[in-house]
């Protein structure tokens, strides 16, 4: 996959925004692990709505790689051992959600607040599904700290899913206004070139 300079710059910008979102957080202390409600999801949504599947997914992967090499850009730090934290699945969920949101957004015939809610909700379900499955598997089979599905769903999903849905609605409102600008920045040069 070859990216142009402006595409690389855009991916780097969104990776940085997702990192900033990790520090805008509310900690929710729970018996097993502290959950973090952050603004990361907002910027993942914006990437999915504005950049398409390729650039949105790349932005999240860049962010994950930065954190896994040791730069503390995750809500609870960074480093390669972060993979073995049950909550890392929600970060993986960002990448999968960004891809699906990008795919759906690219296929929309008409883009408005109502239609953008479709990829937003699909992304939310994907993000939480990947996160919950990873949380359950790591907790039960690696950390050896048994946790039931009801605990995972109630304590580690339902507690933050409504605020994240609110972020979906906010991101949709912003994306509707920003899509023409971002599209012009990413595609304007090529359009002018073809017209010449």
From TrEMBL:
Gene3D superfamilies assigned to the protein according to its UniProt record, in alphabetical order: 1.10.1760.20
According to its record, how does it sit in the membrane? Multi-pass membrane protein
Compartments where found:
Cell membrane
Please state the span of the N-terminal signal peptide per the UniProt entry.
none
Cytoplasm keyword on record: no
Family in the record = Belongs to the BioY family.
**What protein is this chain from?**
Biotin transporter
InterPro entries, from UniProt? BioY
Q: Where are the transmembrane segments?
A: 34-52, 59-77, 83-104, 116-137, 149-176
Enumerate the Pfam families for this protein.
BioY
Which terms in the Gene Ontology molecular function aspect does this entry carry?
Answer: biotin transmembrane transporter activity
Q: Does the keyword Transport apply?
A: yes
Keyword list (alphabetical) reads: Cell membrane, Membrane, Transmembrane, Transmembrane helix, Transport
Question: Which GO cellular component does the record give, naming just one?
Answer: plasma membrane
